[in-house]
């Protein structure tokens, strides 16, 4: 392609020249960065309009330019206001992001790009310069005191912003594009898909599996709430996006990839996942390096999924159930902490509670999915293995510690084993009467993500109330916690909903301008204004112990979002829809 423009390219340029003449708006596929006298550095970043092998980008300026430096390829000057950047080394598919960094040198007033083309196809013609901001697709319903149905819709919508891989045609978050399409290439497997964990771009399998389990549990036991809110299919899609990835990650018997991306490499990059260039290593558990927590939680997630899809897609239900059974056997037979086998996970999602809770959790869900009583017997055995010490007191229900969820489930599935009922009663009573609270009324179970912990327990309160356990009291407590999150103190902690909601979450993708536009040189991370994208439905971490909260992008303790934050929260919202 170098040095010669094809006939198609010439036709495209001719068309673009006419458009350029007719309009003088700035093309926001080009973002100016560093500036100095009569010079600036800039980045061209745009989705490819078609598959490409080699790239030629025409740039049209509104004022004269002396020269352009493009060090990764070459720059050709057609005239003072038309330059072509050429890079034969680039190739990719339609929709993938093409990013070229260049320097412009000019004789006087600063020029800006007003039109551009990729390989002769106009992509920015001056007639439009920005992607319209996404409007909340979740309509209000008028439900009071809070619109639980709308927030449920928004809470599920958030997962579309966290999607990795090839995005579907019905993707509602329009500022996200295909990303991480090479995941797994380092090990010869297709590990595309799944969810980015939080405000970063690592795919951590352990919390992702808990996220799937909790979304699925809500779809099963608060089904009427999902149905009334019109969110059943969206909830199923959110669940399946995770479990489709788990099926890919299950690459052989007793072999499962539990993480893609290195935490250190990833966290040193602030930008869109579409523009990532860092190494993304794939990490697994297998017979020689097992991981009981990861295998057990994924088994639970897949068993839940088999129930959700049993009457929707019988073949898929059977497929995920077979893998769930195998992973549970792997978790039980080859016992080891998963973060020993995947050391990078230890700095982010170490399993502090051990693996007995995941073994119990998985066995109970497999019984519910299969009606095979041997799983109940094995669950009792796992229960007996859980350490009973003062340091092992149950004080949370989370991605790490599944005991409260398992005890709850056990009361339904194995009521003759009364220890389950005793233990969940003890935990819920402790939460209501002895646990710490903020002055405004939020149960404060952890400094990191207290909203998430409150929502997790609210889910359990609603669920146990439906089983007849202190029904009125537990529902009142749970509704109060969700009320705090949605605005009882004058602040909503759900992005895009209610009054005074967070506008600067610690979240890389939403901190970047829409394509067109770029996210580089620290601007998106450190600028004082709101994130350019509204991350509808995301639950932020929450306040300090005295209800203090600052909407600060750099405060990842209180203002980050995560897939597991929303997982039980959406189920609790479905429970509230049922009550209203």
From TrEMBL:
Residues of the active site: 506, 551, 560
Glycoside hydrolase family domain boundaries: 148-573
GO molecular function: cellulase activity
Signal peptide positions (record): 1-24
Catalytic activity entry: Endohydrolysis of (1->4)-beta-D-glucosidic linkages in cellulose, lichenin and cereal beta-D-glucans
EC number: 3.2.1.4
SUPFAM superfamilies assigned to the protein according to its UniProt record, in alphabetical order: Six-hairpin glycosidases
InterPro entries xrefs: 6-hairpin_glycosidase_sf, 6hp_glycosidase-like_sf, Glyco_hydro_9, Glyco_hydro_9_Asp/Glu_AS, Glyco_hydro_9_His_AS
GO terms of biological process kind: cellulose catabolic process
Record keywords, A-Z: Carbohydrate metabolism, Cellulose degradation, Glycosidase, Hydrolase, Polysaccharide degradation, Signal
Source domain of life: Eukaryota
PROSITE patterns assigned to the protein according to its UniProt record, in alphabetical order: GH9_2, GH9_3
The family this protein is said to belong to: Belongs to the glycosyl hydrolase 9 (cellulase E) family.
Protein name, per record: Endoglucanase
Originating organism: Cherax quadricarinatus (Australian red claw crayfish)
């Amino acid at each position: 392609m170098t040095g010669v423009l094809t006939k198609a390219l010439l036709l495209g340029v001719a068309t673009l020249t006419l458009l350029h003449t007719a309009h003088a708006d700035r093309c926001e596929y080009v973002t100016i960065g560093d500036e100095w006298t009569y010079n600036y550095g800039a980045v061209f970043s745009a989705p490819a309009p078609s598959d490409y092998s080699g790239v030629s980008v025409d740039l049209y300026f509104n004022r004269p330019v002396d020269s352009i430096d493009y060090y990764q390829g070459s720059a050709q000057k057609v005239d003072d206001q038309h330059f072509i950047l050429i890079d034969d080394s680039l190739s990719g598919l339609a929709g993938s992001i093409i990013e070229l960094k260049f320097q412009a040198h000019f004789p006087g007033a600063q020029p800006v790009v007003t039109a551009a083309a990729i390989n002769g196809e106009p992509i920015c013609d001056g007639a439009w310069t920005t992607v319209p901001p996404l409007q909340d697709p979740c309509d209000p319903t008028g439900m009071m005191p809070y619109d639980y149905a709308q927030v449920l819709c928004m809470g599920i919508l958030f997962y579309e912003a966290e999607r990795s891989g090839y995005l579907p045609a019905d993707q509602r978050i329009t500022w996200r594009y295909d990303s991480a399409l090479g995941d797994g290439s380092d090990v010869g497997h297709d590990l595309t898909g799944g969810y980015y964990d939080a405000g970063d771009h690592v795919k951590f399998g352990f919390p992702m599996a808990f996220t799937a389990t909790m979304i699925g549990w809500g779809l099963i036991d608060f089904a009427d709430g999902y149905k009334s809110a019109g969110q059943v299919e969206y909830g199923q899609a959110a669940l399946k996006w995770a479990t489709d990835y788990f099926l890919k990650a299950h690459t052989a018997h007793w072999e499962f990839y539990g993480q893609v991306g290195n935490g250190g490499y990833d966290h040193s990059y602030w930008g869109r996942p579409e523009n990532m260039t860092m190494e993304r290593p794939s990490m697994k558990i297998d017979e020689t390096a097992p991981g009981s927590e990861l295998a057990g939680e994924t088994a639970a997630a897949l068993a839940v999924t088999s129930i959700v899809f049993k009457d929707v897609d019988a073949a898929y239900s059977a497929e995920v159930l077979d893998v769930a059974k195998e992973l549970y056997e792997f978790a039980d037979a080859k016992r080891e902490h998963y973060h020993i086998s995947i050391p990078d996970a230890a700095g982010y999602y170490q399993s502090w509670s051990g693996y007995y809770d995941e073994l119990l959790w998985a066995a109970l869900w497999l019984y519910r999915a299969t009606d095979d009583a041997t799983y109940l017997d094995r669950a009792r055995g796992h229960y007996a293995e859980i350490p009973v010490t003062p340091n092992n007191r149950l004080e949370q229900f989370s991605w790490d510690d599944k005991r409260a969820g398992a005890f709850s489930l056990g009361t339904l599935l194995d009521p003759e084993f009364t220890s389950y009922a005793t233990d969940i009663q003890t935990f819920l009573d402790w939460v209501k009467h002895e646990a710490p609270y903020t002055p405004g009324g939020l149960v404060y179970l952890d400094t990191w993500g207290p909203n998430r912990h409150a929502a997790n327990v609210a889910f359990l309160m609603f669920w146990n109330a439906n089983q007849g356990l202190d029904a009125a009291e537990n529902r009142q407590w749970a509704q109060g916690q969700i009320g705090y999150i949605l605005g009882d103190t004058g602040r909503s902690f759900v992005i895009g909903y209610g009054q005074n909601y967070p506008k600067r979450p610690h979240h890389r993708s939403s901190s970047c301008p829409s394509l067109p536009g770029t996210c580089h040189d620290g601007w998106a991370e450190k600028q004082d204004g709101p994130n350019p994208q509204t991350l509808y439905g995301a639950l932020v971490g929450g306040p300090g112990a005295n209800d203090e909260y600052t909407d600060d992008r750099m405060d990842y303790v209180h203002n980050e979002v995560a897939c597991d934050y929303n997982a039980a929260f959406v189920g609790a919202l479905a429970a509230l829809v049922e009550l209203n």
